[in-house]
Amino acid sequence: MIAADPGPALRAAVVATAREMNALGINRGKSGNVSARLAHEGFAGYLITPTGLPYAEMEADDVVAMPLAGDDRDAIGARLPSSEWRFHRDIFVARPEIGAIVHTHSPFATTLACLDRGIPAFHYMIAIAGGSDIRCAPYATFGTQALSDHAVAALAGRRACLLAHHGMIATAPSLQGALALAVEVETLAEMYWRALQVGEPRLLPDDEMRVVLEKFATYGQQRPA
Ligand SMILES: [Zn+2]
Question: Of 20, 84, 184, 186, which one is the catalytic site residue?
Answer without folding.
Answer: 84
